[in-house]
Amino acid sequence: MKYIQxxxxxxxxxxxxxxxxKTVSISSDKNTNYIxxxxxxxxxxxxxxxxxxxxxxxxxxxxxxxxxxxxNGTDCSGFVNILYQKLYNQSLSRSADEMYYKDCKKIxxxxxxxxxxxxxxxxSKKISHVGVCxxxxxxxxxxxxxxxxxxDLNEPYFQKCFFAFGRVxx
Length: 170
Prior knowledge:
Layout: H1 2-41, H2 45-48, H3 51-59, E1 69-70, E2 73-74, H4 76-88, H5 96-103, E3 104-107, E4 117-120, E5 129-133, E6 138-143, E7 147-152, H6 156-161, E8 162-168
Antiparallel strand pairs: 1-2, 3-8, 4-5, 4-8, 5-6, 6-7
Helix pairs in contact: 1-3
């Protein structure tokens, strides 16, 4: 009987600890995402309320998964597509290459605004990666290694693979 009481007590402690940890984890992830995005881009709390940045906070850290676009996993064109659907009520082509050639007008660096697209040729002559321009030479994209994240266009890797900027034709 004594062993049953110990077993039941341990069982209750274990499962109540798991439950409380899960709750803390979810809210701290969102808070962590908010702080990371805010600090990377040097934004004020007011700027963080803009729909673009609120959307990025929601998706920040979502893992990369080719051919999908859910919060369980997304690829680069899927992420850009859902961002444009939710924020601009616009559907784009499903591949980075088609987005550039079918949905965008090429623009110069001087014309780039938040929300414009940036395209890369990673391993071939075909456009194979896309992200959304932010401020201070930063862009948000779904990286194969780190999922949805913010990177800097001045990083040597992105400088080497850069193809063009594009503005979605509305």
